[in-house]
Design goal:
The chain is mainly α. Helix content is about 50%, strand content about 5%. It contains 7 helices and 2 strands. A two-stranded antiparallel sheet has the order 1-2. A hairpin with a 4-residue loop joins strand 1 and strand 2.
């Protein structure tokens, strides 16, 4: 461990809110695939960003799905899983800006799906809490300890 003078010097940049935000967004960028996995889990369970159900498959949809290749089965009465071809999930990505992280999909049908079902790209409050408590805070704490040169 360094001297108090060295610790004070290392602490100066952390007094800036912008520096902490920059570090936090750096952590979020490192967690992009985890964030997308959480969003995909929600959609697989037919949930929007508010945790509300998006619907269940009809018998007609089940019939149609049996005649086509679908990544996941479509069973009447079961919640939508949003994996017909898999393009929606496979095309998911995040755009990070100064203060936001927005989830999108390159799937050409993504805009249609979002128009039909509403807010589907993003995380529920439950998943945001999981992300922050289980992933962001530990990684951010580790970065701060490294910056302060306190070791682990």
């Amino acid at each position: 461990m360094g001297t108090l003078l060295q610790l004070s010097k290392n602490l100066r940049p952390l007094k800036s809110r912008k520096e902490i935000e920059r570090m936090a967004f750096g952590v979020l960028k490192r967690l992009e695939s985890f964030i997308i996995d959480l969003n995909q889990l929600q959609l697989s369970n037919s949930q929007n960003i508010f945790g509300a159900s998006l619907g269940v498959y009809s018998p007609k949809t089940e019939e149609i799905a049996k005649t086509q290749y679908t990544r996941q089965p479509k069973i009447a009465g079961q919640p939508y899983n949003f994996e017909w071809t898999g393009e929606l999930f496979d095309g998911m990505y995040i755009i990070f800006t100064t203060n936001t992280a927005d989830i999108f999909s390159r799937d050409p049908k993504a805009a249609f799906i979002e128009d039909k079902y509403g807010d589907i790209f993003g995380l529920t409050d439950e998943h945001k809490t999981e992300l922050v408590t289980q992933k962001v805070l530990p990684l951010l704490t580790e970065l701060i300890w490294q910056r302060l040169q306190l070791g682990t």
